[in-house]
Design brief:
By secondary structure, the protein is mainly alpha-helical. Helix content is about 65%, strand content about 0%. It is elongated and about 90 Å long.
């Protein structure tokens, strides 16, 4: 990649509307707005991919940054035979797996010999994609997201990776399997187990919480008594 070009104000305004192929062409010339547009467009997927492997927000962010640096310094090798998102995801995944291997001194994710299960799944809409209309809704959304993230973090590495790629990012089973270097049948098995573990984890975290639903105590309870007595006095 050539030296970073000075941004042009007019092009900066319209850069986000360009297709990936056009952005790549500009980025190869060192165009800064194009580089920023690529980063902003693909940040979410790459962070989720890294976070699925590295159970740490700050390290996942570091992985994504390293992946971007590697991608942009080797952008001349990108031929457009695959989608830019696929190419970037592969680089991010390799960067994350490399760190896991270095930390655990392993050679990669192990195959799990299980009976293959079939069936697809719908994309899991995390609460972060929902709109909040008031502080109470925002709090509920944050709590729900925290509950889901805890459940995802609790999954074994091989299950967490396929779950995030398949359910959160919406990849097909075949695409996710290709990224992870496993067979589609193995991916289906891991996904099935991941869903089961997620359900068990969430049910466990929620157990005992039902007795606290729809509380009516404290000031509300006292106020009800006052209102009843006031009404009785009026009808006496």
């Amino acid at each position: 990649m050539t030296a970073i070009a000075v941004p042009d104000a007019r092009r900066r305004q319209n850069i986000s509307a360009l297709a990936d192929a056009e952005l790549v062409s500009l980025a190869k010339q060192g165009d800064e707005p194009a580089i920023r547009a690529i980063v902003q467009r693909h940040n979410q997927r790459l962070f989720r991919t890294a976070r699925a492997i590295i159970r740490s927000d700050w390290e996942a962010e570091d992985v994504v940054q390293a992946a971007y640096v590697k991608a942009f310094t080797n952008l001349a090798t990108f031929r457009g035979e695959a989608a830019l998102s696929t190419w970037l995801t592969r680089i991010t995944l390799n960067e994350a797996l490399g760190r896991v291997r270095a930390r655990k001194n392993t050679t990669g994710l192990e195959e799990i010999d299980m009976q293959t299960t079939s069936g697809g799944g719908e994309v899991l809409q995390f609460p972060s994609s929902l709109s909040a209309t008031d502080p109470e809704s925002e709090l509920s959304r944050s709590q729900a997201r925290h509950l889901l993230e805890q459940a995802v973090d609790g999954l074994p590495d091989e299950f967490r990776a396929i779950f995030v790629l398949r359910e959160v990012e919406g990849m097909s089973t075949e695409e996710a399997a290709s990224f992870l270097g496993i067979k589609p049948e193995t991916a289906k098995t891991r996904l099935h187990r991941a869903r089961k573990l997620m359900r068990q984890s969430i049910e466990k975290q929620l157990s005992g919480a039902f007795s606290a639903l729809f509380p009516f105590d404290g000031a509300r309870c006292a106020s009800m008594g006052d209102r009843v007595i006031a009404t009785l006095r009026q009808t006496a």
